[in-house]
């Protein structure tokens, strides 16, 4: 454990992107040596902190390069933010990118500020790729105009998602809910996340549709406690770890947070608030927390061993106790889905 804290200190002192890349790979090596179930909670915080330092340094380097290039005008307020597992503070070692930039400036400065933001976004996401963060396959990155915007444009876009409530709009809202500041003016992102929750909380029809969204994908556990693994193709015999119950629990807690206007960014904070507000029956709340720990442990362990963040894990490679844990976690995921469906007015 101490070696991980020492590594984070080294990350903070890095001077080049190459040094950051070495630190990222060293993080995987050291974590493999200390990963134990009983240490999971402490390790999850350390891993998240390490990612935060790696990204902050990369974004700082990107800002410095953009200023040297004298591209556009740096906004008076701006912030890089992360989403997905990074935003929720539950990433594995080789997680992909989910990031954006939010900025505020005078109307007469907006064009030049956009030039700065587009350039720093391109440099920053490339730096992240170089140090070991794959590009997001869904293009949820600051280089996408959807995720690199002025405050005014971001608000108009979010309000359009809320107004139209189309399937993709719902998906984008679920993504944006996880936004957490990482570099720059943090309050800019914190305030907008709170506003986002306020807006959603006031829309019962939207909440109903978001509740329907939580029901998918189906948890791959059959009536007779049989895990429905992939039958054909390159992933034959494997289970998709994110879709195997993990994302269903995450989205269930997101929905409950929207329902109660709990604007916390991390899953653990959301779970605590949900439990304190008694939004879930206490036994189910405890089972949900245990299930999240199981999914995180298995994902972290096998992503670390693979050297890359893979979503598919061969079922037969899991230890017997891990298979037992995952089946229990899948049952919890299905119960949470049904609970949200009832609360949202679904089936």
From TrEMBL:
<protein>
    <submittedName>
        <fullName>Nucleotidyltransferase</fullName>
    </submittedName>
</protein>
<dbReference type="Pfam" id="PF10335">
    <property type="entry name" value="DUF294_C"/>
</dbReference>
<keyword id="KW-0808">Transferase</keyword>
<feature type="domain" description="DUF294">
    <location>
        <begin position="204"/>
        <end position="343"/>
    </location>
</feature>
<dbReference type="InterPro" id="IPR018821">
    <property type="entry name" value="DUF294_put_nucleoTrafse_sb-bd"/>
</dbReference>
<dbReference type="Pfam" id="PF03445">
    <property type="entry name" value="DUF294"/>
</dbReference>
<dbReference type="GO" id="GO:0008773">
    <property type="term" value="F:[protein-PII] uridylyltransferase activity"/>
</dbReference>
<dbReference type="InterPro" id="IPR005105">
    <property type="entry name" value="GlnD_Uridyltrans_N"/>
</dbReference>
<feature type="domain" description="Protein-PII uridylyltransferase N-terminal">
    <location>
        <begin position="37"/>
        <end position="165"/>
    </location>
</feature>
């Amino acid at each position: 454990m101490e070696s991980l804290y020492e590594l984070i200190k080294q990350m903070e002192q890095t001077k080049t992107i190459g040094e950051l890349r070495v630190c990222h790979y060293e993080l995987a090596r050291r974590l493999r040596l200390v990963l134990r179930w009983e240490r999971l909670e402490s390790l999850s915080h350390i891993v998240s902190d390490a990612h935060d330092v790696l990204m902050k340094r990369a974004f700082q380097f990107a800002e410095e390069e953009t200023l040297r290039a004298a591209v556009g005008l740096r906004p008076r307020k701006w912030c890089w933010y992360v989403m997905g597992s990074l935003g929720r503070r539950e990433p594995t070692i080789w997680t992909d990118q989910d990031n954006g930039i939010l900025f505020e400036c005078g109307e007469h400065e907006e064009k030049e500020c956009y030039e700065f933001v587009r350039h720093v976004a391109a440099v920053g996401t490339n730096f992240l790729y170089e140090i070991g963060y794959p590009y997001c396959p869904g293009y949820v990155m600051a280089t996408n105009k959807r995720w690199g915007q002025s405050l005014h444009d971001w608000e108009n876009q979010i309000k359009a998602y809320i107004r139209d409530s189309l399937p993709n709009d719902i998906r984008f809202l679920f993504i944006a809910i996880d936004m957490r500041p990482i570099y720059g003016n943090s309050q800019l992102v914190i305030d907008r996340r709170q506003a986002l929750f306020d807006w959603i909380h006031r829309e019962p029809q939207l909440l109903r549709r978001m509740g329907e969204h939580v029901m998918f994908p189906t948890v791959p556990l059959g009536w007779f406690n049989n895990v429905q693994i992939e039958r054909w193709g390159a992933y034959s015999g494997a289970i998709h770890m994110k879709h195997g119950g993990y994302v269903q629990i995450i989205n269930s807690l997101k929905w409950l947070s929207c329902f109660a206007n709990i604007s916390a960014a991390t899953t653990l904070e959301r779970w605590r608030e949900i439990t304190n507000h008694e939004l879930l029956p206490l036994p189910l709340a405890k089972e949900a927390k245990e299930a999240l720990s199981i999914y995180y442990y298995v994902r972290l362990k096998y992503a670390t061993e693979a050297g890359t963040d893979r979503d598919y894990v061969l079922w037969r490679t899991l230890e017997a106790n891990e298979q037992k844990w995952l089946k229990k976690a899948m049952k919890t995921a299905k119960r949470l889905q049904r609970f949200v469906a009832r609360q949202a007015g679904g089936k």
